[in-house]
Amino acid sequence: MKKNRFLALALSALMSAFAFTACTTAADDTANAGTDAAGSDGADTAAVQTLTYDDVKIGVIHIGNPADGSGYTYAHDQGIVGMQQELGLRDDQIVRKNNVSDSDPAATETAIRECIEEGCNIIFGTSWGYMDKMESLAAEFPDVYFCHGTGYKNNGTNLNNYFGRIYQARYLSGIVAGMKTKKNYIGYVAAKGIPEVIRGINAFTLGVQSVNPDAKVEVVFTD
Q1: pLDDT per residue as tens digits for the range 190-222
Q2: Is the pTM of this model over 0.85?
Q3: For 171, which of 24, 58, 200, 203 could close a Cys bridge (C-beta 3.0–4.6 Å)?
Q4: Bridge partners, residue 161, by sequence
């Protein structure tokens, strides 16, 4: 079970560093909705038995460039750097694909396939829009682990997801809003009705109610 132990440690190190940089408490806190996509149990078992620290290679798909030094991509890459240091991986064991639009499925697929061609057996996709391509390619490559940052899809074998506990900060901001409102009517602008956004809305509302049970929260989705 070397591969499972390595993946658990890699995820732990990644999320610990990512959470510290992004000012969140990291965890593998996911809405695990089951999917029908599944790889070959036999192929995955064989990979579990043979993968070691020396031959592991990690691909990372970023929507931006960590060199910019700010924002989500930089914070996430600090998690990758922390993981590499914690596990003692060489520079040539990390492959980064930067500035890959998560709204362009073709670009996403190209970046992932390039990682696989370069020998990556664990791939991190760090943005929501990579999810569907990671799902389909996980089915095509059952001996590669696909780790999707945010999202809700997994196949129980080689596709999983992870995220930080952003809802904790949402709860605290709800407390502030509940204390500051003068009309007991608070607006919340949300993106899409996906699990991580719904968690944030619920946490914010619970924070409001904890200090001001008379206040109401109205949510508007931008989609």
Answers
A1: 998 988 899 999 999 999 999 999 999 999 999
A2: no
A3: 203
A4: 148
